[in-house]
Design goal:
Shape: globular
Strand content: 25-35%
Low-confidence stretches: none
Largest sheet: 8 strands, antiparallel
Mean pLDDT: 97
Number of strands: 10
Bound molecules: 4-(methylsulfanyl)-2-oxobutanoic acid, nickel (II) ion
Radius of gyration: 16 Å
Length: 180
């Protein structure tokens, strides 16, 4: 019940906002995501402004920074351009931490064998993607997400598109997979 739904993607070039499940569907468990360094919490997004559960996670993990981004054609300046950037396969030097307050969206991450896993994020899902993991983001067919962005200290949004295999953060991440 508290699991987020995730699955291996097909490789059709159809609209990225569609689910892209394989036939038959090949689900991915939370344990498999954890082995990739992806962690998930389910929170009550209705009380995000005053939620002791969220507060505890922020304190434990040092998420001092937060802001809120609304991903909708009328709300996000340069919407199409940004979506294109978000869907380019990339990595960051720091963890990417997102908490869905309203709506839905997909995060795609690469597994150990370089296959795409699609993670369906809905209201109340908080996820952390580790520094160095290749990933991308897209709205789903509803085209609406309001998400909290969290960060340890001053945020750095810079994305490095693949290939970034020589980056120290990438090598560290790849090494960490061998030990998990
Ligand atoms: C990223 O770097 O992948 C993003 O910021 C995704 C959009 S924020 C919900
Ligand atoms: Ni990213």
């Amino acid at each position: 019940m508290c699991e987020i739904e995730s699955w291996y993607m097909d490789d059709s070039s159809e609209d990225k906002r569609l689910p892209h499940k394989l036939t038959p569907n090949e689900p991915v468990t939370l344990e498999e995501l954890q082995k990739l360094g992806v962690f998930h919490w389910k929170l009550n997004a209705d009380i995000y402004e005053n939620d002791p559960g969220l507060q505890r996670i922020r304190e434990e993990r040092g998420y001092t920074y937060m802001d809120i981004i609304t991903i909708h054609p009328d709300k996000l300046p340069n919407y199409e351009e940004k979506l294109k950037m978000f869907y380019e396969e990339h990595l960051h030097l720091d963890d990417e931490i997102r908490y869905i307050l309203e709506g839905r969206a997909y995060f795609d991450v690469r597994d150990k064998n370089d296959r795409w896993i699609r993670i369906a994020m809905t209201k109340g899902d908080l996820i952390t993607l580790p520094a160095g993991i290749y990933h991308r983001f897209t709205p789903d067919e509803t085209n609406y997400t309001k998400a909290m962005r969290l960060f340890v200290g001053e945020p750095v949004w810079k994305a490095y598109n693949r290939p970034a295999d020589d980056f120290e953060v990438r090598q560290k991440y790849v090494h960490s997979l061998k030990c998990s």
